[in-house]
Amino acid sequence: MRGKAFSKKKKDIMSKFKPRNRPNYVLQDDEDVVFSAAFRARIPLILKGPTGCGKTRFIENMAYRLSLPLVTVSCHEDLTAADLVGRFLFKDNETIWQDGPLTLAVRHGGICYLDEIVEARKDTTVIIHSLTDDRRMLYIDKTGEVLRAHPDFMMVLSYNPGYQSIVKDLKHSTKQRFASLNFTHPEVDVETKIIRSETGLPEDECRKLAEMGSKIRQLKGFGLDEGVSSRLLVYVARLMKCGLEPVKATLHAVSQTLADETAILESVQDIAKLYFGNIMKEPGNAQNKAGKNRE
Length: 295
Prior knowledge:
Blueprint: H1 2-15, H2 31-41, E1 45-48, H3 55-65, E2 70-74, H4 81-85, E3 86-91, E4 94-99, H5 101-108, E5 110-115, H6 122-125, E6 137-140, E7 145-148, E8 153-159, H7 172-175, E9 179-182, H8 188-199, H9 203-216, H10 230-241, H11 246-258, H12 262-276, H13 285-294
Parallel strand pairs: 1-8, 1-9, 2-5, 5-8
Antiparallel strand pairs: 3-4, 6-7
Helix pairs in contact: 8-9, 8-10, 9-10, 9-12, 10-11, 11-12, 12-13
């Protein structure tokens, strides 16, 4: 009886990590096929791509499709090995061990997703090395346990290559333990589908937003450090559905988010007016204005 109760308890631990509803995700290529093959082959994956291009949504979608728990850790510079592996806690007058998110996935099976891994300290990421080669094991030094990974365990990392630097980058010894999937901003047709599926806005409006996003991305390097994400274009669409006119929605969801300098902000707004305003401008004007400002 106690054994059954214990098994049920273990099952309940991971059930809360399983996506209950299928997350909306529009395929850009055959990334689902690659992910499924990597899972079957027990090969860890790195997802690389700009902010807001759908990396996290893709992982959530695949976890649902494969019926796997998804344990997500948002990495930051204060993340320690103990945060991932676990620690001793004092509870009810006794000391008990509590598994961290990485250990939970290793012990019970599931995807451990370390989001923006380059934000974590390098000495923290080293602990995943023994899990990402043929050993597939985790040594818990505080308890002395050598934990063999569950057959359904998969390690997935993500980061934005545009934010790489000498200080914030993965070691080559870490990179070469993984296969990789590269994500980019979607093509206009795909992004139109994404915006429409997320918001229900009419298709012609969604296409205008997708084309506007593609044009704004041409300002990268001409005043913008990062192109507009699909997420922000979805925000514009949602604001439009709630009554804001498109140019104003773009101002608050895109321009003021991406730009601090007035000239760059105006350049982005000029592009919005090309697609939604009454004043027609030459398509190159916004980029030229941003280029002059940089000079």
